[in-house]
Amino acid sequence: MTDGYTHISMPASREPVTLLAVDRAVSELRRGRMVVLSGGGGEAVLAEAAEAVTAEDLTRLATLGGSVPVLAITSRRAAVLSLGAYAAKVVTLTAPEPLTAPQIRELADPLSDLQRPHFMGLHPAEAALHGCDSAAVALTKLARLLPAAVTVRLTNADADDRAAWAARHDLLQVDAGDIFQYEITSARTLRAVGEARVPLLEAQDTRIVAYRPLDGGLEHLAIIIGEPDPTRPALARLHSECFTGDLLGSLRCDCGDQLRGAIDEIARAGGGILLYLAQEGRGIGLVNKLHAYELQDRGFDTMDANQQLGFDADERVYLPAARMLRHLGFNRVRLLTNNPDKVDALSRYGIVVEERVQHAFPSNKHNEAYLRAKAARGGHLF
After folding, report:
1. I need a surface site. Which of 38, 229, 326, 362 has the fewest CB within 10 A?
2. Which residues on neighbouring strands pair with residue 45, listed in sequence order?
3. Is 314 marked active-site?
4. Which residue is catalytic, options 314, 332, 341, 356?
């Protein structure tokens, strides 16, 4: 996830606080509840996921916050709505009359009304100076919800002691900076929590090591085939989980072919590592991936579909992969991939990619357009 902010190292003693607070805030948003986000200079907002907002929620937001709620969306979603181009990652939307809950949900969801002819008078404002609005949208991304949030500035006079005020109203408070740091902090705290020998059909000498972050979040898996030598570049594959392709055999993508093909190739090479990363749908989550599929059925390619939803074309983070490789004792790899971004990412995180090994499979009538878009627009090398 990119947010436009500079990530700085956080003291290890603060990591548990950061992870726990953000993890709880994610859970609150997924349940349709609001949270308090605190930023620099005394700034604070109440925030709720746009896709879950109701009329009653808007009333409570306005009453508790003491001001009018606004809709915070990504600049990519604003461009889709023909509201202009913005340097900031997030913009806020207001209108002459307060936006209703159905209007907010429609603006956040491209499947409801792509043309948006009846929304007149929307006024976007860049949110570069309002870190809490950006943090609210970042939090919806971490929650694998649509990247849009309803926010209201906290201006009530009785909210000077923010922690006490949040406790009185049964609201969770989280620091905006902790949200921006979350994915980096989570990757830094990965630790091995389980290991077992798991013979595979094409690679019987295989063991799996599970890595979990300190907050108990989703596990990433290291699938170690054979006995790769840490003193030599390991043949490696970074594979983002794909429920539809890996498990169901979906023909809409080539993920299942890539997964099984990587296991076969690593086994034939005598050993190596496949990292199975919990980053469904290029990091947007399974539900949003299904939304993207529906958009593809309406004529959008795989890149445009993500952007219609308000996401970047690729939201994945590869620091967890680098951490896992180093923990296993590997600093050099031969990478099975068609995606140069993976080579660049691992290199940025200190893993030397000594060779990119081509990893392509025949297309079918269901994924031909998908593969063409990855090559033409994503820079994939087939």
Report:
1. 362
2. 37, 153
3. yes
4. 314
